[in-house]
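User: Fold this; tokens only.

Assistant: Input:
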Amino acid sequence: MAAAAAAAVGGQQPSQPELPASGLALDKAATAAHLKAALSRPDNRAGAEELQALLERVLSAERPLAAAAGGEEAAAAGGGGGPGAAEEEALEWCKCLLAGGGGYDEFCAAVRAYDPAALCGLVWTANFVAYRCRTCGISPCMSLCAECFHQGDHTGHDFNMFRSQAGGACDCGDSNVMRESGFCKRHQIKSSSNIPCVPKDLLMMSEFVLPRFIFCLIQYLREGYNEPAADMPSEKDLNKVLQLLEPQISFLEDLTKMGGAMRSVLTQVLTNQQNYKDLTSGHGENACAKKSHEKYLIALKSSGLTYPEDKLVYGIQEPSAGTSTLAVQGFAGAAGTLGQVDSSDEDDQDGSQGLGKRKRVKLSSGTKDQSIMDVLKHKSFLEELLFWTIKYEFPQKMVTFLLNMLPDQEYKVAFTKTFVQHYAFIMKTLKKSHESDTMSNRIVHISVQLFSNEELARQVTEECQLLDIMVTVLLYMMESCLIKSELQDEENSLHVVVNCGEALLKNNTYWPLVSDFINILSHQSVAKRFLEDHGLLVTWMNFVSFFQGMNLNKRELNEHVEFESQTYYAAFAAELEACAQPMWGLLSHCKVRETQEYTRNVVRYCLEALQDWFDAINFVDEPAPNQVTFHLPLHRYYAMFLSKAVKCQELDLDSVLPDQEMLMKLMIHPLQIQASLAEIHSNMWVRNGLQIKGQAMTYVQSHFCNSMIDPDIYLLQVCASRLDPDYFISSVFERFKVVDLLTMASQHQNTVLDAEHERSMLEGALTFLVILLSLRLHLGMSDDEILRAEMVAQLCMNDRTHSSLLDLIPENPNPKSGIIPGSYSFESVLSAVADFKAPVFEPGGSMQQGMYTPKAEVWDQEFDPVMVILRTVYRRDVQSAMDRYTAFLKQSGKFPGNPWPPYKKRTSLHPSYKGLMRLLHCKTLHIVLFTLLYKILMDHQNLSEHVLCMVLYLIELGLENSAEEESDEEASVSGPERCHDSWFPGSNLVSNMRHFINYVRVRVPETAPEVKRDSSASTSSDSLGSSQNSGTAQVFSLVAERRKKFQEIINRSSSEANQVVRPKTSHKWSAPGSAPQLTTAILEIKESILSLLIKLHHKLSGKQNSYYPPWLDDMEILIQPEIPKYSHGDGITAVERILLKAALQSRMNKRIIEEICRKVTPPVPPKKITAAEKKTLDKEERRQKARERQQKLLAEFASRQKSFMETAMDVDSPENDIPMEITTAEPQVSEAVYDCVICGQSGPSSEDRPTGLVVLLQASSVLGQCRDNVEPKKLPITEEEQIYPWDTCAAVHDVRLSLLQRYFKDSSCLLAVSIGWEGGVYVQTCGHTLHIDCHKSYMESLRNDQVLQGFSVDKGEFTCPLCRQFANSVLPCYPGSNVENNLWQRPSNRSIQDLIKEVEELQGRPGAFPVSISSETNLSKEMESVMKDIKNTTQKKYRDYSKTPGSPDNDFLFMYSVARTNLELELIHRGGNLCSGGASTAGKRSCLNQLFHVLALHMRLYSIDSEYNPWRKLTQLEEMNSLLGNEEQQPEVPILYHDVTSLLLIQILMMPQPLHKDHFTCIVKVLFTLLYTQALAALSVKCSEEDRSAWKHVGALKKNMCDAEKSYEVLLSFVISELSKGKLYHEEGTQECAMVSPTAWSPESMEKYLQDFCLPFLRITSLLQHHLFGEDLPSCQEEEEFSVLASCLGLLPTFYQTEHPFISASCLDWPVPAFDIITQWCFEIKSFTERHAEQGKALLIQESRWKLPHLLQLPENYNTIFQYYHRKTCSVCTKVPKDPAVCLVCGTFVCLKGLCCKQQSYCECVLHSQNCGAGTGIFLLINASVIIIIRGHRFCLWGSVYLDAHGEEDRDLRRGKPLYICKERYKVLEQQWISHTFDHINKRWGPHYNGL
């Protein structure tokens, strides 16, 4: 079939010029059907020709590209109709032809039915959310799409969600990459048998059409490509071509999605070589085809790999034909095409002239297969398609198409081979690319799909030399950026290293290559091939040596470096990625004994490369001074393979070690790094800038340490175990430059080190020795022990979160090796060593995360300071670990003082490394220890406690690791050993400890005290003479010692080596300047190490004879020495522990210790007070005095601010602090006194100089969010769940107001309700006061302050000068007493009627105010300005409800609503009721009193017409006819529709302030009667008809009782009878079901209803009374709240007895006869309901029982939110937002920062925060799991309420672990929202500029 098609298509006969006209006229479908029929016949020649002609015409490449090419060509061709039309036409034809006349969609469906694919293979691009399950993955790169993941079962697995960086594909169904147990339901292996066979004719047309189509696409690609000119990138042109081809490629992509059947056809087409040959050969007469073929050949030319450096190296421009000579030698006769030099490559090379001769490597297989370097040859469509994909720099669509085909197995193999064939070309293109980041991602997107599969990787390694290609290409890549190494011998060095400043390294361009390489090395079969191939290993070591010694640092000695380069990042990244990770990959395959051979190979070539390196840099034995490189990958390869060999392969270490001379060379550079670390920490490199510190930190940082410092230290341990110990120790001290310090003399001359650095360098040297001797990471610890030690070290420094622990514990950088964090061992070790501290929540405290903290027994037994020092990046962490250790010892009572780092027992050494311990038993070390002990005892300068600590540590290590038997216990040592040097008799520490040293000869400067002393006394010279004769005085020089040993070793290893040794003196780089003359002096010492230790004990304890050998009292100690008493403690304990161990080790020592202790020790030389010390003493005294002075000042300050201190103003938690009392305590003082927190003066607030409260005004819609049901709404997580706001408090009040405004007079409506449920102004204060003029100057100073504050001074924002709480206004305090005088409080006996009259009179007096408004005072000005502030706090739409804009009624309504808002919010803060009583904290901090004064002042400016004053309607009966009024006007709102609480506020605020208590009670009593009547009316509407008639009847009977006015039955029946006169009850039939409550009303339930109806009013009124008159609120049970509040308000007569059940009606006190006034009230309603019965009824039933506001309830698991919202489209712009967010108050879905939904420069979140929360918004960011708060013009990140299983946030979902709701955190968030304390509690605010 395919052959026939090929013949048909490829036939070379001339194509018919045109189809007959009729053919064109036929529609496409008919043509397609006709052709299909023709082709189905057995003899289909004719059909095939016809089809081919048609395709030739339809798919001709000429038209579109003429237009695409732009410019003159297009004009010449006159491309008709633009490119688009022709292309669409072509695509339509193709679809028709494929479907063979049928519909294209039906065709697709038909093909899909035959999809046998068991693989998912979904391809995604960057930013897609996918999953990775480590439990199910075989390859670490395994990933699943969300659908497959959720359909599989991964409960309890170790999985995470991640955002794809480079793109990827779903591996579900691919058993090479993941375990079958993890497959989802759709891809659990289907057997292919049940899928029917594809009918032959279904895809027949595709086989004919597709080759032509793909060829057409390739022609387009050829045509469109122009070689980029050298000067300008041609991305624009390429993108233009790609845009044109978008529909074609998308069409192909759709084909791949049709399933397996279509994919196999495509595979046939793409890989068929015959088709390709026929179509693309470029013969034939088609000019267009010829042209495109030529272009293709030009493009091909540059595809070979060339080594163009050679021309440039010598600066000779040879003709290009000759350039290949060098390359040809190097790559064993690669084809001459190498001569093709790319111009762009030359540019790369400019920097590298004069490279010196380069050793070229012979490639092992290069001889057989030169194709790596060769120009490409293409044999199929697939190959050329990939070629163009690369040329066009991997367009996303092409990549997706090529990857979508991968489920087809045949294609996968073909494609992988093609990819490998183009590999070199890909990397070459990448190197030149301008968009290398994007391109890298797309390359890896492809390669990770191919190389993760072991079978495939093995196949291409064998058939296509994949490894050779990769290594060659890597070499080729790095060759372009080599420079000469300046390490060691600058002039003559032949070594070249990579230049870290080059873009290739700086931008990490090499990572796709390296990542592929690491990927294929993770397959055992591939790695084995690599390790067996010697040629490859040689090449690879050559590659690694490019990094050896890169980024060399030279110490700046004079000037500070001008420019700090940051190239070190690139260097560390390169070593880690290009050297270390492949190394770990190889190591993971060397785990068993059978792999010994591999290790031998690597070690052999590694040593060869090292030897070459030493030769190239001309290295003998001394490293060059003042330079260091942190990069020694060859050393590290060598070290790690050695370690593996011993640990896993049981190889004999000595068999893979080189000779002594090589070992000596090997140790120098790693040792140099250790010394440099000490120098850097001693600030000796400070002139090199911060970056050198950065390098020192990176070197030990957790991601690098096990590829850097650990191998270095291990290598040094190996060298130390095999070299002469004296040589090694002296080398160490010489490297650390402290040799000159190690003298017995009190003064010395250090030629190479400044005095100020000596101490820290000595500490560094000793610490290094301790680490070297006690670290066992590679010397015998098991993996679990290592993990445990690492974990303990990290936890001891600080408590850690789970994720930071995972990050800090060095894992093998190669993901396929050993310890994977999160694997079983990690969790089990963690639970063994640490306790979990669950997250804590103090409201207002910072949000804690869940932390792990070390268990007590870990501190007790496992705390290992050595490991901590090794692993700390910052030196402060060591201190932090010690502080925590100290705290533990204090707390557990083990040790009270300041402990020293504990000595920890080590795991045993692996036998191969036993030699390491010889370091502890060599004379050089003993001399050093002896000298240091002596110097510390004699108080020489520059020695610290740290030095002593390390010295003791080393002695203790030596005692622990001494040879068991002590042969020389009593016997004298043999002769020759003695004369060698007479310091110590042998090399065993145990016996050397007791050896007494009498005299020491020292070289001292002439100025030293020792010299003077000797010359003065004449007798001493005799004694000196005698002692010298006896030969006891010893002199010692470390340097001489080292030289001598070095010479010996060299002589031993080879005789000719002598010539190599250059006599080097250490003076070559001594400090300039004349050193004073040194002379020799002899000191009398007469001490041994033991005696020095005992004296030290005395010195440390400060007592004579403080040491007493413990075994004299208790012999047990010697038998059972492990005593916990000694395990923790300070220096004294350490000395005791050491002496005990010394005594245990030998009887001699024990005896000598006893002897020393018996002699009364001579006192330590008395300290003469030197001038310097005197200075410090004076300093101390001065300090003491300064301290006392400070105390005094502080005390004064404290007394001034005493009030502040007492209140412990904790801004953070408004709940539990006691703010300052504004008032003074003495009741007799009539005027309140305020303290100004700015000027500190106290005094009353006056007209001229008013004082104000610091307040924060904010608009709030919290009240509006109350709902009437208890259950909070849930956040919608499916399309069905939606939240509608019509049951919120705000909505209900809105509806009510607009209903009233429809039927009644506007001005009257605005008095009948309150606004402010949404956008009400809430006023809160911190309780501090200040003079208003002080405040103004404070604001002025803030304005001039240039520091960026988190608030905007121009908007009036500031922070309280005392407690720093956020504020934005000042509320003036009204002069006069704060709490009204007692005289106002006395209850009077005036009758209620008198009081009512007084109230009316007082309200009638306009502006009857102590301050006359006409005379403007400062106070009244401030009152006005604060009123302005209050108005401006909220938006206009929340203030203006009147139909006539700007009417005074509006202001009136707004002002009393502000009071209402603040009272209601306080009620909510108290939990919605007043049962708790007392003055709650909110009360003490309240500013309502001051607020009332300000509001009242302004309210009285608007006097209400006495006609309309509701007070009249409440207290007087009017004639009926006046009630009827005029019909044409809109009537006033009936009094029964008024909101009683609003009436209360209006009445109170219209009264002159301060208010009489009597008047207040009177107003409350009157209003209660109205409220009660409203309750009865509402109840009557809720009853059923029968209930009503029954109640009417019962009540009528009792009407004539004495207290009928106080019986609810009578009143209810009266209300019913009055209301039934209207039409109110008539329409029951229609509405019955809505109103009637199902249960019959019992008297109890009616009483409960009435009480519930009245309670909100009573609560608000009691609060108001509490604020106005300062009375405390009583506390009570919930059920008695009504009666308690009623009596507190004076509604209940005091003598009221509470035996029989309480009846609310008993509180009534009617000012006028009840029945008359009720009749009057009902009459107003009657006239309204006659016209509008429905509305009349609705207005009567007021919903007054609002529940507390809540945020939306969130689901338990974050994933449910994420999966629904992250793909949800925005309802405004119908796109999926980049940053979706959801409002937690109302559930609205918004685009954060989205420009798509921007309106008038406000982004959607800011807009929503204004509409939903009046400026406060709480949003959950879906992609980050974090909550952000918007408050006005500022925003802050609040934190996350979702935590993972370890109690941690996962901001930005980086870790992608499952997250669960943390209820406590959510409660805290809700609490802050309700209490309006976001501004106070959250500290990090920033402006959002409306961009969120």
